[in-house]
Amino acid sequence: MNIQASDLGKVAVLLGGTSAEREVSLMSGQGVLQALLSRGVDAHPFDPAGRDLSELKKHGFQRCFIALHGRHGEDGTVQGALELLGIPYTGSGVMASSVAMDKVMTKRLWSAEGLPTPRYVWLSPEQQTREHVRQVPDELGLPLIIKPPREGSSIGVTKVRGYSQMQDAVSLSARYDPDVLCEEFIEGEEVTCPVLGSGAEARALPVIRIVAPEGAYDYQNKYFTDDVKYQCPSGLPPEEEAEIQRIVLASYRALGCRGWGRADLMIRASDRKPFLLEMNTSPGMTGHSLVPMSARAIGLSYEDLCLQVLAGATLDSPVKPQAGA
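-> structure tokens emitted (325 positions)
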């Protein structure tokens, strides 16, 4: 793909924001910004935490690279604002971003499409009583995972091994989201698989196998240590890798995603069956991030990856209706 920087216009790299993942977003955004500048793009940092989005129009920005993570960045809200401003942006549109940000809604949709995802129990605020909470392990077994359905980067996540841990885990999760997602724990290997492109043109990139110390692939290990080992090529049998890529593409299209994304999965040790955990519609682009790692495996540099994602910036409704039509 031959992309001319001059064709991309004045670009805002949206970074930081107000979510619990602000720190990671700042790292992602700075990486993207430097990559675009190195390729001659007229790119500028823009932190919505300190500036009104209406300034984008005022200052003549022609497209946005969304390097925001979590709420008010990955959940359809910023996408909706950019739709109203008429400024094309990277990644999924309003609906796909909103649905993918909510792990419960994502699981409902995947289940309806016959795609494999771990069994779960959703606890609304009214259902977070001791009586309800104690019943969850009876349904899902132990250990199990408790997480806020609308956060990322493993924030507020607990692996529960016994009944006595349940209430504290639910309380921790509820600090980040009023709803709580309790999920069956899949014993096995964790993998991730990025996707680039849209519709029929979307393609799955190489699978990455994640080997975390004692299985603790948490916020600290994701971004601030070198203890986690990433294997790309994954070393999985070719038929397993192909099946994971097939499922990931199906999950991406089912959600209506576009531009780019990254699905996280577990491969169950007992029968090697893959299970979808979540879809990230604004993946990390830090020095520890996985989409650039997978892209490198097919000869796509970090800089070219950023250019390709930016070149795909669009709107849900790129053609504006004529007045009176």
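The CA atoms of residues 103 and 168 lie 21 Å apart.
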